[in-house]
Amino acid sequence: MNKPARVEPGDGQESVWDYPRPPRLELARRRLRVVLGGITIADTVSGLRVLETSHPPNYYFPPADIRSDALITDDGTSWCEWKGQARYHTVRGADRVVRRAARSYPTPNPAYAELAGMVAFYPALMDACFVDDERARAQPGGFYGGWITRDVVGPFKGAPGTNWW
């Protein structure tokens, strides 16, 4: 599959093809919310976002802004060449329980030290994820977990055939 052409961003938009590699970590500067089981399980204005070439932003929540009964540490880990070793979490909201639906980096690599203890949710596995009042769409595929909003344009990595981008 050939890489599609970069979508030119309009006013107030940013292209994921202008994001750096290695990824940049920055304050989100927006309200972020996650809903599961019909209840808000995470709500913050103190989030961080990770911006990496070809990926929509991944948003990270401080633990203090996540319901104390929403996360259960799950088995298994994965490795990111930039951030280090990820830990996975089962996410619970009311009567819904979803395994490996969030991840964190307990001891990230030094360049990403601000992520220590922060939690990122996979939007495809939640009822809804919001950036301000806009409902985010999930990044294609099940691995990366980016949040797509109208202010971010692609094409986005993650769909079948895009692994080599």
Question: What is the secondary structure topology, with strand pairs?
Answer:
Layout: E1 14-15, E2 24-27, E3 32-36, E4 39-44, E5 48-51, E6 58-61, E7 71-80, E8 84-93, E9 96-104, E10 119-121, E11 128-131, E12 134-135, E13 137-138, E14 147-148, E15 152-153
Parallel strand pairs: 1-15
Antiparallel strand pairs: 2-5, 3-4, 3-11, 5-6, 6-10, 7-8, 8-9, 9-10, 11-12, 13-14
Largest sheet: 7 strands, antiparallel
CATH class of the domain at 30-140: Mainly Beta
SS-based class: mainly beta
Discrete helix count:
0
SSE succession: EEEEEEEEEEEEEEE
User: Which radius of gyration do the C-alpha atoms yield?
Assistant: 15 Å
End-to-end separation in angstroms reads 10 Å
How many strand elements? 15
What's the CATH architecture of the domain at 30-140?
Answer: Beta Complex
Strand percentage: 35-45%
Shape: globular
